[in-house]
Design goal:
Blueprint: H1 24-31, H2 49-59, H3 68-73, H4 87-113, E1 119-129, H5 135-140, H6 143-163, H7 166-176, H8 178-181, H9 199-209, E2 210-215, E3 218-225, H10 228-286, H11 291-322, H12 328-352, H13 359-396, E4 399-405, H14 418-445
Antiparallel strand pairs: 1-3, 1-4, 2-3
Helix pairs in contact: 4-14, 6-10, 7-10, 10-13, 11-12
Region (Disordered): 1-75
Transmembrane segments: 90-112, 421-443
Organism: Paracoccus tibetensis
């Protein structure tokens, strides 16, 4: 199928015949070049002149007219020249060698010849509370459980910050001398400790060597060192210092809980001491241990005297009725009655006397002091019970470190991960080289 004259034929519509090579003569006529005369083979035998002239006329090629299909293809383009390497291509190769290959080779040599083996010690722990909800709390709902979980999470957050703090670095360094531990690889300037005596340098190295992962109240640590025992010692020191911090938090929380109860107990104790001191001074001043008991004794004496008086009065009446008026028994009985009455009057005067030692006043003062002492004793008993309850509650809610992974002792060196580091270096340098190449070509195309 041939396309109309003057219109180019799409490449998709070309047939196999269209793609066949064109003879040299046709191509020359199409381009406008003069075709060369074909080279004739040497004659086998001489012929006559008229015959040669006739053969020459018959051998002259005819000028072939181009077909519509040949005209539709257009003129034949010359063959493109062979591509050659240019200066920018050599620059790309050189930059690839310098920016990618050379750093990877240098890094590989350093990792496998100079980098010292590092051992990892792992430790994992969480913060637990001893508080257990009672029956009333279980019936009341889940509020106590949510509160306990929130307190534990808060303590774990505090521990997470504490492990990253300079305070812990200083404490562990005081126990183990971290500078010496992390400087045991003198031929490895990349991974060994390169800082000075400043605590900031040691804290920066701490962030490189100690890795922490925190998830849902659990803390996982990985400690690196050039000796497995050193790595385990650092992990154990971190665990111990974390326990000390939790104990300090327990002491602060316990002190906050017991402060009010202790102050109330102290006030009750002071009140009771003062009441007892006043009672002792009262007894020493009046030389009485228990005035109430003395009153009861005196009341018993008066009652006994009254009974005796009644008996003597009865006896006197009988004597006067049966004996002579001059009977001496009558006078003796009258004397007894008089003595009994005088004694009773003396006993009564002890209660109503205006003197300083009046028993009624003494008993009144004693009763006031006794009431004050009893109130102070009851207040002290209640305050002591409240203090014991607060102390038990504080102890019940105490927190502690619960390690679920003890500090491990490494058997083989796991770090540095040389293959992974090489791949990372290669990818990083390759990305830099590609970005630089794209920037170079974009700037070149804009010119």
């Amino acid at each position: 199928m041939s396309a109309p004259i003057g219109k180019p034929t799409p490449a998709a519509l070309l047939t196999a015949d269209d793609l066949k090579p064109m003879p040299v003569s046709e191509a020359s006529e199409t381009v406008g070049l003069k075709p060369e005369a074909p080279v004739s083979a040497p004659a086998a035998a001489p012929v006559s002149a008229p015959a040669e002239k006739t053969e020459a006329k018959s051998a002259k090629p005819r000028k072939k007219q181009p077909t519509e299909e040949e005209l539709s293809h257009g003129p034949v383009r010359p063959v493109a020249a062979r591509a050659r390497m240019k200066r920018r291509h050599y620059g790309l190769i050189l930059s690839f060698l310098l920016l990618v290959v050379a750093p990877v080779i240098a890094s590989g040599w350093y990792l496998y010849n100079r980098a010292a083996d590092q051992y990892a010690s792992f430790v994992g722990f969480s913060v637990r509370s001893e508080s257990a909800p009672g029956a009333s709390e279980l019936m009341g709902g889940l509020g106590s459980l949510v509160g306990a979980a929130g307190n534990t999470t808060t303590d774990t957050d505090i521990l997470y910050k504490f492990i990253h703090s300079r305070d812990l670095v200083e404490r562990v360094n005081a126990r183990l001398d971290l500078r010496e531990i992390w400087s045991k690889a003198p031929n490895d300037p990349v991974f060994r400790f390169r800082g000075g005596a400043a605590l900031e340098d040691l804290a920066a190295e701490w962030d490189r060597k100690v890795t922490i992962q925190y998830d849902t109240g659990m803390i996982d640590l990985r400690v690196l060192a050039f000796d497995p025992v050193d790595a385990q010692d650092i992990a154990r020191a971190i665990l111990d210092e974390s326990g000390i911090l939790i104990n300090e938090l327990n002491d602060v929380a316990r002190e906050d809980t017991l402060r009010y109860a202790r102050e109330e107990l102290q006030r009750a104790q002071d009140r009771l001491t003062e009441a007892r001191q006043q009672m002792a001074e009262f007894r020493n001043r009046h030389q009485l241990v228990d005035p109430v008991a003395d009153v009861q004794v005196q009341q018993g004496v008066v009652s006994s005297l009254q009974s005796q008086l009644a008996e003597q009065l009865v006896s006197l009446g009988l004597l006067r009725a049966n004996a002579q008026p001059t009977d001496p028994r009558i006078s003796q009985t009258e004397l007894r009655i008089q003595v009994i009455r005088e004694q009773m009057e003396a006993e009564r005067r002890n209660f109503t006397s205006d003197s300083e030692l009046a028993l009624s006043d003494v008993v009144g003062q004693f009763e006031v002091l006794a009431v004050d002492r009893e109130f102070a004793e009851r207040s002290y008993t209640a305050a002591l019970a409240g203090y014991e309850a607060a102390r038990a509650e504080a102890m019940r809610k105490s927190r502690y470190i619960a390690p679920y992974i003890r500090p491990t002792l490494a058997q083989d060196a796991e770090f540095p991960v040389r293959g992974t580091l090489l791949l990372m270096i290669f990818g990083f340098m390759l990305a830099i080289w590609l970005i630089g190449t794209m920037i170079f070509y974009s700037l070149r195309d804009r010119r």
